[in-house]
Amino acid sequence: MSLTPSSIGAVAEKFGVTVHTLRYYEKIGLLAPISKNSAGRRVYSSSDIERLHFIKRAQRMHFSLKEISALLEVERNSSRQKPQAQKLVAEKLGEIEDSLQDLIILKEDLSNMLNACLSSGEGEDCPIIEGIGKGPTKDAPR
Amino acid sequence: MSLTPSSIGAVAEKFGVTVHTLRYYEKIGLLAPISKNSAGRRVYSSSDIERLHFIKRAQRMHFSLKEISALLEVERNSSRQKPQAQKLVAEKLGEIEDSLQDLIILKEDLSNMLNACLSSGEGEDCPIIEGIGKGPTKDAPR
DNA sequence: ATTTGATCTAGAGCCAGCTCTAAGTTGTAT
DNA sequence: ATACAACTTAGAGCTGGCTCTAGATCAAAT
User: Fold this and answer.
1) How many CB atoms sit inside 10 A of residue B12's CB?
2) Using a 7 Å CB cut-off, which residues contact strand C?
3) For chain A, which has fewer Cβ within 10 Å, the N-terminal or C-terminal residue?
4) How does pLDDT run across B51-65, given as a tens digit for each residue?
């Protein structure tokens, strides 16, 4: 239904990014060089658009641009370099699981602090400031 | 038991940061100017150390340095500006809950993709590449 | 014909949170 | 006495992912 090819402005609008971002993706090699018309302007083909869809979806899945490059590389090299793709996704899944554990605990801590603060008496010190002040000082995933 | 005051190197080691980081925190006002000895070298007092503990714990709780400044501000202004502290923590809790929702769904998606890939036949296309290629292109919290 | 708006390139700037460099001073060990 | 480590400052550099600027060119509308 959509009538590709499109200008950079149209593509930018379609994906909710700026033209700067599109040129940036191209510059860092995330998008292949976009073909130009006689006036030297970019004309995005439907496969460019597809690639952008892929990029934006992968970004939603918390893949970095570098990781997305790797995924696209996998896609290009052969129609199924499954082990490579599996590795990348498994790693990401591991990261996500770690983050989940971290956030679950953090949520508990924060909501405890908040409740303590809400139910604390007028004259008492703030349980939040105290709470952060007194907790353990351990390393955390960053 | 610990014998403060301490040199910048000792403090850096204690907190697992570099001396650069400590000076950086001071430069951006996260730590108050550390007093200097006769040779112009920083001498960290026990209250400086306490503040650092606070900073590092708050960082573990995903507060940005800017947010930590705000928390420290709250602490300084009065021994209990509870509403302010509550606001900051409630906001952070909201962010954490949003992230959790996001990650829970993402974890599902990734593990589905991984399973599909593991159980896919030799000749088939990679379900991971296909999966990312075909999903919805929606905005996500960033 | 002129203005407006979209596009082009090259390159600088921004934010967070460090991280490092250079050139100089001081404290400690042998 | 001299080497060497730890410290000082000011300021530059780094990563990631944009974001913007300047100056030029080009296309469409009035």
Assistant:
1) 19
2) A 7-10, 12, 19-20, 23, 36, 40-42; B 17-18, 20-21, 23-24, 37-41, 59, 64-66
3) N
4) 999 999 999 999 999
